[in-house]
Amino acid sequence: MNIRIGIVGYGNLARGVEASVQLQPDMELVGVFSRRQGIETVSGVPTYSMEDIPNFKGKIDVMVLCGGSATDLIEQTPMVTKYFNCIDSFDTHARIPEHFANVDKVAKEAKTATLISCGWDPGMFSLQRVYAEAILPKGKSYTFWGRGVSQGHSDAIRRLEGVVDARQYTVPKEQYLEEIRNGQTPDVDGYKGHLRECYVVAAPDADKAKIENEIKTMENYFVGYETVVNFISQEELDRDHKGIPHGGFVLRSGESTDGTRHVIEYSLKLDSNPEFTGSALVAYARGIYRLAKHGGTGCYTVFDIPPAWISTQSAADLRAHSL
Amino acid sequence: MNIRIGIVGYGNLARGVEASVQLQPDMELVGVFSRRQGIETVSGVPTYSMEDIPNFKGKIDVMVLCGGSATDLIEQTPMVTKYFNCIDSFDTHARIPEHFANVDKVAKEAKTATLISCGWDPGMFSLQRVYAEAILPKGKSYTFWGRGVSQGHSDAIRRLEGVVDARQYTVPKEQYLEEIRNGQTPDVDGYKGHLRECYVVAAPDADKAKIENEIKTMENYFVGYETVVNFISQEELDRDHKGIPHGGFVLRSGESTDGTRHVIEYSLKLDSNPEFTGSALVAYARGIYRLAKHGGTGCYTVFDIPPAWISTQSAADLRAHSL
């Protein structure tokens, strides 16, 4: 029997999940649950209201929660975990312990299993950090993000007076990547390691110097970073900056004996951040489904799932073809 | 209590395991078991004969088997699994199903747990293939090895008449790596994708043209590959080619919707192949130890181990610091 998937929310991430489910031979999409009414889904799968969720008990195996971390998931994941095994992409790092505790409590009472904070970071990048650090305990780890669109930073620029539209790219500085690949362990943090590249459409009468200054001095967003502001036309922005690509690098440079160095590098180059995140959520929907079948209840992360459980292949096929 | 480790065999890989155990805060090395007598270990840990192995029952938690796949592991892993949880680096791909079945039978009878085929390929590369394929089911996977020393190919050259010493490097062809990173899916196999670079010390009176021809026409080793033969002096070989570096790349290029492409890349750049392989074995010794503590018996691979189990960090620490 196929794994029956439900989707909660219907933004970019949800459409990524919807597309990914179509590519999986052992899954079927039962429905999309949304606060908005009258949505047409890309695949034609039916939509329901959030209030219908409890009525699908026994008809859906895993609910994929596609809301935002800040306001949606912190409430929705525990709520839906009352009825279903779930998976979410909760990425507000400082609140992960709190979110984990909330979900774990509900899941243990309801005897469901929910996996939180899946995607690529947190998610695949987290896995790479754990693997690399376990193998090379003596060493230094690095994470770089980009080149990719930061939605939050783009939104922050758009809120400035005189700004019509904007797109912000986070760009890792190649010099540090090269140093690490060559076995060096530079002292570089997120600020030093990234360039913030802004493309801004200004209103015709706007004071561009003022906008540029406001961007560069914006606390929590741009202060501390090297920031480059480019003013372009709306046509240029629509033509050249419509996609939502992203990616990044996880590296660990370590040594096994004095002077014997090893560099582990993992990188992603993604045409679409939400589609790749959705694809990771769907693979791990299979993982949490199997964990639940094995009797697991409570809250989990990617660290708890044996890799074999996210694959469609049997254990014997994995050993024969992928080992 | 520390995880008590034993090592079977005492070649390069065993010394890599020995060094790695020293870096792990939760492990101690109890002894090295070898067919040879009177060995001095690097760390000063005592050595014992192979016949002593059964006497250490209850004193060692995991035995790390460091023999060669072809003749040693195929017999030793089932033998030692009778008494201990074990881990090996069995890498004769075609015989993995047979080796798995042998070990599984012994382990289930003895109620031990043994993990086979650990290291980087098989091992970390295998994991990357499984993760990437589960997330991007529509796509193409690639594995490249090198730049690194192939011991088997170096040995094969050394056996030729007129050859005093030799070192063979496997080198991935950069052009294909670049194509894949740019989202293309070239039709490239192991033969087309690698260059075989040979450094040969010939005897003073040897026929170099004949040696070069014999290398390039050697079945199962060089036929089908682009092969370059360089004749050098013993001094040059000793000076420039004494290390045993290795590494490689696992890539997957796939799409989530038509034309939306993603590239996942994992790479290793290793100063010492046996030291890194040994480091992976030691991290997974922790994994199989925990699996055994959870009641697991039988034969396992890296695919079966939750990533959290190879880490020294608690689940809460992993969520707080690595997720």
UniProtKB/TrEMBL annotation, chains A, B:
Pathway: Amino-acid biosynthesis; L-lysine biosynthesis via DAP pathway; DL-2,6-diaminopimelate from (S)-tetrahydrodipicolinate: step 1/1. Its EC number is 1.4.1.16. It catalyses: meso-2,6-diaminopimelate + NADP(+) + H2O = (S)-2-amino-6-oxoheptanedioate + NH4(+) + NADPH + H(+). NADP(+) binds at residues 10-13, 34-36, 66-69, 89-91. InterPro entries: Diaminopimelate_DH_Ddh, Meso-DAP_DH_C, NAD(P)-bd_dom_sf. Keywords: Amino-acid biosynthesis, Diaminopimelate biosynthesis, Lysine biosynthesis, NADP, Nucleotide-binding, Oxidoreductase. Substrate binds at residues 145, 170, 196, 246, 273. One of its GO terms (biological process) is lysine biosynthetic process via diaminopimelate. GO terms for molecular function: diaminopimelate dehydrogenase activity; nucleotide binding. Gene3D superfamilies: Dihydrodipicolinate Reductase, domain 2, NAD(P)-binding Rossmann-like Domain. Residues 119-272 form the Meso-diaminopimelate D-dehydrogenase C-terminal domain. Homodimer. Belongs to the diaminopimelate dehydrogenase family. This is Meso-diaminopimelate D-dehydrogenase. It comes from Veillonella tobetsuensis.
